[in-house]
Amino acid sequence: MAARGEPDVGHGGTMRAPGRVRAEALAEACAAAGELPLPGRGRTLERWAALAALAADDLVLARLAEAHADAVAVVAELAGAPLPPGSRWGVWAAEDPTGVLTAVPLDGQGAGWLLDGAKAWCSGATLLTHALVTARRGQSRQLLAVALDAAGITVAADDWAAGGMKAADTRRVRFDRVPARAVGGPDGYLRRPGFWIGGIGVAACWYGGATAVAAPLRERVGARGDDPHAAAHLGAVDVALGGARDVLRAAADAVDARPEADHARLARRVRATVAGAAAEVIRRVDRALGPGPRARDRQHSARIADLEVYLLQEHAERDLAALGAAVVAAAEPDWSL
């Protein structure tokens, strides 16, 4: 058992008091996410389908549970160890120019480290027990596991202005000589095959959220069969969701067939396809239903707000530019049927 404040990938952890997300719901979601099949082992579609189903029910909860599931997969890939029972993990790997997190080894063995600095975009900051964080070590990035009850951790005040994803409790976190343990080697987090596979798991959550946004339009068309314009919008939604679903299914097959491959291009294609489909669903539902549901249906309005913010996690033109460069660099564009 690790001492208080020291992360231990293989043993129990101390749970923090949750905030806006119900403690029981988050604990159940993380426990279920931790039991999902690991990606690239023959049951990837089952994993993504479960994340999509949770996202259709509660997108904020799915966003947090997906990160926990990703942490399980990352640690399994880089360290070969399970996470502590009952723990709730985040993956805080975003880089922000306003804050830098550095890691200093305690000795020459590379296991024990101290974290100093700040990390932005820490979702679940007051809801989780542990996090995987990336920190700078010279020119490289080191992934480390940290217990969030450790001395020296300061969570900034909640300054999230948007209504969307407000309940995900994304904040800035300060680390002052906080003990941590390395997970993998320098730059191992970004170089591992599972990095891009994990990015498709996020797209599965976007997909699930989009299906929930589409549901009221299907109900409207079913109740008012004489509205051809609403039916046309529903048809367009079906095209968008059907295409996104097929891309996710094909990606799962590709990942299971070659889990060790570089799936960067595949992941960027899938994420762009699903993000575009989700945006099209929001646009079509709004045009078909008008302002009423957004203005008066709190659940529907919150779903759209959460999804719109979540979709901003897609790297948009940067990923498209990388795809374009990959097309030019390849011997063939890989467009044949």
Automatic annotation (TrEMBL):
<dbReference type="InterPro" id="IPR046373">
    <property type="entry name" value="Acyl-CoA_Oxase/DH_mid-dom_sf"/>
</dbReference>
<protein>
    <submittedName>
        <fullName>Acyl-CoA dehydrogenase</fullName>
    </submittedName>
</protein>
<dbReference type="InterPro" id="IPR006091">
    <property type="entry name" value="Acyl-CoA_Oxase/DH_mid-dom"/>
</dbReference>
<dbReference type="InterPro" id="IPR009100">
    <property type="entry name" value="AcylCoA_DH/oxidase_NM_dom_sf"/>
</dbReference>
<dbReference type="Pfam" id="PF02770">
    <property type="entry name" value="Acyl-CoA_dh_M"/>
</dbReference>
<dbReference type="GO" id="GO:0016627">
    <property type="term" value="F:oxidoreductase activity, acting on the CH-CH group of donors"/>
</dbReference>
<feature type="domain" description="Acyl-CoA oxidase/dehydrogenase middle">
    <location>
        <begin position="96"/>
        <end position="178"/>
    </location>
</feature>
